[in-house]
């Protein structure tokens, strides 16, 4: 179990306020039942603390706790599944355990798992003779463990009524959905979530008017929604969110329309009508096929989508949900990909050509990701996701060091071609980014002029003052700087003049549009003129034909990049590509 999950598990255990509490008959009753079902003298509700197994309930055990090390109940908590040791003395791992020293020979334990998936410990039975456990016995032990968890939640952990609204809360909503799953499997139902306000609106209310005003808003809304529900229970599932499930024979569209109208009426007279925006998320589901937690999760997603709709109502789309699930999975899995030096991630390079001579004068390093299960992930899909997360620093560091290592290798092979590397807006916000780049150059023994850092126009515009400062430090270190995707960021010429950039790369969308007519060509021509006025080399991206290359050269564009010259190449093929192409690149080159 990783440090983070173990920390969360221990935190969940402590929040339940169970450790070192007096014995309880409600737990002892279940423990005695486990002992009787197995016909064994020892049974316990064992909680896995940081370094001990503490017994909330015990039968046939004199001591209150034992060390966690080599305790089978710890394994149950970590694995979150039943464990059976038929002969402790014959087991290589547990033979030297404290439990074995007490004379115990048989062990069976079922996990105690919270709703969030944390393993708290085990309901266990212990015998002094080796034996097996039948499936019937283990089924009973699992049922009893579930009863223990129900008792824990009921007595020590979670209430079932929200103190503000006096409505059933989120835990009750999930339990009732589970009951629905059990009682009417296959039945089509519709869940609805009412979200009273955006997070920033809630913060504003509390900051200006105080939490009491927010509580009053919640009580008013609860009353309004409840008045419109005939045969549905209303649940208070989050600070300003309410949920309910419509009856199976109810017209969902009509019901939501009535509720929307009633909320609008109530909002018109509410003291918070000018500072809150209510929306409604709707999720059709089939009892038994969708887990309760997933129903609630998709309700939250539908409510978020509703904030993008003029009507303020959104019906859950499983297609959209799949896309969100994929985005989240890519974000989670990218961290693991970064930790595998020669695994999922790799760089490819795309040559850049001087349009006047056809000579390859530089190349761009591009990141590629081959996911072990999802296959090749397009950069246009995963890079924007990572750039909006804390993982962006790791992404840039990985590409920078891999590109510098490749440059060093090419230098040893006699190939001296500068390599450009993409930098995100977040990197420019890092106070020591320029210094880290210089340190990386020294570490790989690569001269500063051998790399070019590309920053998108929009990234350079974001936090402009800090961006200019970082770019000036990089430029002072002798590193070439480029504005990528030029033309898409709407920056002013006055601002561009402040940037110490050497290269302007015209976005490929403008290059590919040149075939449309003179107006589109005039736009590109003006961009080339801007680059010249700023005394920058101008590079055209996305060149796919000889005609486009010739036209751009006639406009005064300095360099070009695109499929006309070469698609992105594996790094090991780049040197061979240059040798095969020679110094004159006057025709398209196929994929390698």
From TrEMBL:
Q: Which PROSITE patterns match?
A: EAL (PS50883)
Q: Which SMART domains match?
A: EAL (SM00052), GAF (SM00065)
Where is the chain membrane-spanning?
none
Under SUPFAM superfamilies, the record lists:
EAL domain-like (SSF141868), GAF domain-like (SSF55781)
Matching Pfam families: EAL, GAF
| An example molecular function term from Gene Ontology annotations | cyclic-guanylate-specific phosphodiesterase activity
- Protein name per the record: Sensor domain-containing phosphodiesterase
Species this chain originates from: Sphingomonas desiccabilis
Lineage runs:
Bacteria, Pseudomonadati, Pseudomonadota, Alphaproteobacteria, Sphingomonadales
